[in-house]
Design brief:
Blueprint lengths: L8 H12 L3 H14 L4 E7 L5 E6 L9 H4 L11 H5 L10 H8 L1 E7 L6 E4 L7 E3 L4 E7 L6 H4 L5 H18 L4 E6 L2 E6 L4 H9 L1 H5 L1 E8 L2 E8 L1 H6 L5 E4 L2 E3 L2 H12 L10 E6 L5 E2 L10 E2 L2 H17 L2 H9 L47 E6 L3 E5 L3 E6 H17 L5 E11 L2 H9 L1 H7 L2 E6 L2 E8 L7 H12 L7 H17 L9 H12 L14 E5 H7 L5
Bound molecules: adenosine-5'-triphosphate and magnesium ion.
Length: 569
């Protein structure tokens, strides 16, 4: 039997280091944070072999006094906090006094630094060593070479050079994003990969994440009591095409916090579902005393004193920004980000008019045929005709409006379904049941999910060993291809646990129904029907994107049309 014995110090530090020093990118993150904490405004980063061979960060910050140099590498030695009280309202990135010690346990670290009041720089390589004079104009250079040279087992877990470099680059992007006032250069194996001059937030975001994101984003600027949220939230149409990372910062710290991600996801849930990821850059600011960053060694998770309040705030701000109905959303595209828009208590202030209560599948019943001039109440104008059974052409004050009629109708239906099934869906029994041939798994699904289907307003029963009958459907959907609708619902339910599917996937199910219930291409609509659809769009939240995040309509202004024909030239 083996004896229990204390671990050697080096091993202890390597185990602890394992959490912070996961890969080159985690070293780089710690070094950049230290430079920023030292007040640097210029960071030059050099990497070799994905950072495994070398990570070198040179900054123009305050530097380290020669006497303090040995302490910089010592565990639990920090200049950033002195007491628990400091920790509770910490505003610097660092506070553990552990990062450099952890890194020094698994790599060869050299620190060269010069403060403003020393005649030359000093250099140190190990904790025990006396600092040696060195040459450096100002600031600090920290070089971390041969990562995991003494722990080959860890080195085996490293990925290719390209992958490790990509992770390092991600770190630079995350840090640069939140500090546009700092200039960064990043070089890899002698090649400059990024050169970022000091600028402002919106330019830095454009530079790092690209113009398309900003072009498809709603600017966010909201305040509620002590909470402030700024940044950009990309519209679903953008998420559809890219796999942009969501960026969330709390008091300048990049975090991957479950609570925050959840709040944002929920806000996007209505306009973006399935496998798409929302894209946003959000900066949450609040009193540091109300948020604990000492939760996770890499400080990527935080704990809020008022978790519910924070969740609610983020959810409401984003939901509101994403849901802006057409009438409110249009002018904003041309204006600058709005100033902080509300103060506590947070309230949603939708300007949606209550849609007329009539069956939505049948536009004609709600026809508004008066060819009134387009005005502020009818931003989408009035229909001129239909193009190839797919698009509605309409005229408004600005010029021409093009509507994807299926996408638009789908969105309207979805919002209506959500509103009605929340209580009890209006079910329409069918005089003549719709029969269709069904597979064994469809038959089984009908049995498993009887309760769910009833709650959604369906009545489907088997009428033979290979046959199903649709006996009732939600009233909103009564006009469509009911066999296809039932099949789509069953396909969506198949493989789902029967018990909680309604709670967990209600909106996805409704989206499926909306998609199948919406007018299909090639159905010709009368002008009154088209106008009714336009009016419904105006009255529907989130009407400018369909459930799949595609835009439902677009505007071609007279000026744009003139340009096409070179009028006025
Ligand atoms: N680039 C730098 N410029 C000036 N001082 C630095 C720099 N890097 C490190 N230091 C000094 O070395 C100390 C130790 O750094 P280290 O990263 O190990 O700990 P920390 O930043 O205090 O806390 P944490 O472990 O949370 O990062 C810091 O407190 C700081 O005083
Ligand atoms: Mg640090």
């Amino acid at each position: 039997m083996r004896r229990i014995h204390p671990l050697p110090d080096l091993l202890i530090s390597q185990i602890a280091a394992g959490e912070v020093v996961e890969r080159p990118a985690s070293v780089l993150k710690e070094l950049i944070e230290n430079s920023l904490d030292a007040g640097a405004t210029q960071l030059d980063i050099q990497l070799e072999e994905g950072g495994v061979r070398l990570i070198r960060v040179a900054d123009n910050g305050a530097g380290i006094a020669p006497d303090d140099l040995p302490l910089a590498l010592a565990r639990h030695a920090t200049s950033k906090i002195a007491s628990l009280a400091d920790l509770e309202c910490v505003a610097s990135y660092g506070f553990r006094g552990e990062a450099l010690a952890s890194i020094a346990a698994v790599a060869r670290v050299t620190i060269t630094s010069r403060t403003a009041d020393t005649p030359h720089a000093w250099r140190i390589e190990t904790t025990g060593m006396t600092p040696q004079p060195a040459a450096l104009a100002a600031g600090t250079v920290i070089a971390v070479a041969d990562l995991y040279f003494n722990t080959p087992a860890r080195r085996k877990f490293l990925k290719t050079t390209a992958t490790e470099f990509a992770h390092c680059d991600d770190v630079v992007v995350r840090m640069a994003q939140v500090r546009p006032d700092v200039a960064f250069t990043l070089a890899h194996d002698g090649q400059v990969k990024r050169r970022l001059a000091t600028t402002d937030f919106s330019r830095r975001t454009r530079e790092l994440l690209g113009e398309p994101l900003i072009a498809h984003a709603r600017p966010i600027a909201a305040e509620a009591g002590p909470l402030r949220l700024t940044g950009y939230a990309a519209l679903p149409a953008y998420a559809k095409t890219t796999r942009a990372e969501p960026y969330f910062y709390v008091n300048g710290r990049y975090v991957r916090d479950k609570l925050l991600v959840h709040a944002a996801r929920q806000a996007y849930a209505d306009v973006l579902h399935g496998a798409h990821h929302p894209a946003y850059v959000l900066f949450l600011e609040l009193d540091p005393a109300t948020v604990d960053v000492n939760v996770h060694p890499a400080k990527t998770e935080v704990r809020f004193r008022d978790a519910r309040g924070v969740h609610q705030f983020i959810f409401l701000v984003l939901q509101r920004a994403l849901a802006k109905p057409l009438a409110a959303a249009r002018p904003e595209i041309t204006t600058v980000p709005p100033a902080p828009t509300f103060s506590a208590p947070v309230q949603t202030r939708f300007t949606v008019r209550e849609p007329a209560a009539s069956a939505y599948i049948d536009f004609a019943r709600q026809a508004c045929s008066e060819p009134a001039p387009a005005n502020a109440d009818t931003p989408l104008g009035y229909a001129l005709g239909q193009l190839h059974g797919i698009y509605i052409l309409a005229q408004n004050a600005q010029g021409l409006v093009l509507v994807d009629m299926h996408a638009a109708h789908e969105r309207i239906l979805y919002e209506r379904l959500k509103a009605t099934t929340a209580a009890r869906p209006a079910t329409q029994p069918l005089l003549v049941p719709v029969l269709f041939e069904a597979s064994a798994s469809e038959l089984a699904c009908v049995e498993d999910h009887a309760v769910t289907m009833e709650a959604l307003g369906f009545e489907i029963a088997s009428t033979g060993p290979q046959q199903l009958a649709v006996r009732a459907v939600p009233a909103l959907l009564a006009g469509g291809d009911l066999a296809a609708l039932a099949r789509a619902l069953l396909a969506d339910l198949a493989g789902q646990p029967a018990s909680h599917v309604l709670e967990t996937r209600r909106n996805e199910l409704l989206a499926t129904l909306a998609c199948h219930g919406a007018v299909r291409a090639n159905r010709s609509l009368s002008l009154p029907e088209m106008n009714a659809l336009l009016r419904q769009m105006e009255a529907t939240e989130r009407a400018d994107q369909c459930n799949h995040g595609r835009p439902t309509w677009t505007q071609l202004s007279l000026a744009e049309l003139d340009k096409l024909f070179m009028r006025g030239k």
